[in-house]
Amino acid sequence: MFFKRLPTLLPAIPDPVAQRKLLPLLARALEYGGAPASAVGSLLVIGKGMGQAGFLARVVPCLSKLFASSDRGLRRNLLESIDQYGPFLTTVGGCTAQAGGCSLIYHTAHEHAVHVMQ
Q: CA 50, CA 97: separation in Å to the nearest integer?
């Protein structure tokens, strides 16, 4: 129930609270299966407010882990949301592992895209 209502509650939550408290909890819940795949949207909304450096440091590592999940729904949601986080990744020159694992996301996304869409 909480995750269903979260997108409508996010505008009322101050950015520092969302970024420092809610983002880590949401990332862990997604990583360990405690949140539905639809919670990726809330993770990305919080991450967008952090700027490129914050997004790369705090959201991209989580996305990298989520792509390795065996949950097809989660991987599908990640692929469907790539337009929301793709600009943060493509504007980084070289896109190395030091940039938060964005190269891992691209390789993993392409690897799983065929399996998710089947």
A: 20
Helix, strand, coil percent content, the chain, rounded in steps of 5: 80, 0, 20
Report how far residue 81's alpha carbon sits from residue 60's, in angstroms, rounded to the nearest whole number: 13
Q: Are 27 and 43 in contact (CB under 8 A)?
A: yes
- With b for 16 or more beta-carbon neighbours within 10 A and e for fewer, the 68-89 pattern comes to ebeeeebbbbbeebeeebeebb
Position 67, amino acid: F
pTM: 0.74
Q: What is d(CA 103, CA 41) in angstroms, rounded to the nearest whole number?
A: 21
pLDDT in tens, 29-58: 999 989 999 999 999 999 998 988 899 899
